[in-house]
Amino acid sequence: MPLKADDVVGRYLIALEDVPVYNYPNGTRIGTINKGNSTAEVYSYVRRPGQVWFMFDYTIPGTTPGAYYVLDKDGRFSLSTAAGNVIVSPASLPSVDVFPAGSQLKKYAIFGVLGLLALLILKK
After folding, report:
1. Torsion sign across C-alpha atoms 75, 16, 84, 61
2. CA distance 31 to 23
3. 29, 12 in Cβ contact below 8 A?
4. pLDDT at residue 124 is higher than 70
5. How far apart are CA 117 and CA 112, in angstroms?
């Protein structure tokens, strides 16, 4: 049976399996709580049709602090009153270079500016 949301607030969740962590309910997966590790203290929850998402503070290195969410499922967590080993492994997604020629852009911009200056000087 899933945990009762009201009983979870103010306590810690110990993962009984690898649990995905999201930036908001049904949002982007940002990491994983590995089996045996715990969350930070649960401070709230969000109800969606047929779902309960537990909310907690956790900062993954390199990200802005904020609220992160885990979906409650039967047999996924046990409860604890004491913090455990709070480790969230960042999701390993392939990096995407949004500006693949970004490093070349500066080089070409300098030549463009120099060319424009040359044209302006020669035009006088």
Report:
1. negative
2. 9
3. no
4. no
5. 9
Among 106, 39, 112, 50, which Cα is nearest to 77's? 39
Give the DSSP letter string of 76-105: SEEEESS---B-EEEP------SSTTHHHH
User: Which amino acid is located at 19 in the chain?
Assistant: V
- CA dihedral defined by 11, 12, 16, 20, rounded to 10 degrees? 120
Q: How confident is the model at residue 60 (pLDDT cuts 50, 70, 90)?
A: low
Q: Provide the whole-model pTM.
A: 0.61
Among 79, 56, 74, CA closest to 66: 56
Using the Cα atoms of residue 70, residue 85, residue 6 and residue 72 in order, give the sign of their dihedral.
positive
Q: What whole-number distance in Å separates Cα of residue 34 and Cα of residue 15?
A: 7
Q: State pLDDT tens for residues 4-48.
A: 777 888 888 888 999 998 888 999 888 888 888 888 888 889 998
